[in-house]
Amino acid sequence: MPDLIEFLKARLAEDERIASAGPPSPWEMSGLLPFDPIRILAEVEAKRRIIDRLVAAGKADRDEEGTEEGWITASVLISLTTTACLLAQPYANHPDYQEEWRP
To answer: Which string of DSSP letters, residue by residue, matches 56-99?
Structure first.
């Protein structure tokens, strides 16, 4: 999952950079929905917080190996990985996206 996490962090940094480059109000785009940089920046922050919690949960889960709760490990890791894969799905057309991340 670390490569996927790094991929997601890089895409979010790109989204943030693009959203920060323009005025803070919705941009009009011909033929498309308006692009609202404020909403994009809020989404970037929310996704970063989700990723941070995924990473922290994955570390905590690995720390519990060998305990009575050890049977949860596989299930939790599958859930964490699935969540990260779903967060990466909007970037599936990016050249660095890997097919094994497709949910």
So the answer is: HHHHHHHHTTTSGGGGHHHHHHHHHHHHHHHHHGGGTTSTT--G
CB 77 within 8 A of CB 61: yes
Q: How many domains does the chain contain in total?
A: 1
Provide the domain limits for residue 80: 2-101
For residue range 68-87, list pLDDT tens digits in order. 454 456 677 778 889 999 99
Task: Provide the whole-model pTM.
Answer: 0.76
The values of phi and psi at residue 79, to 5°, are -65, -45
E strands present in 63-102: none
| 23-51 per-position pLDDT tens digit | 767 777 666 667 788 889 999 999 999 99
Q: What are the structure tokens assigned to 78, written together?
A: 């599958």
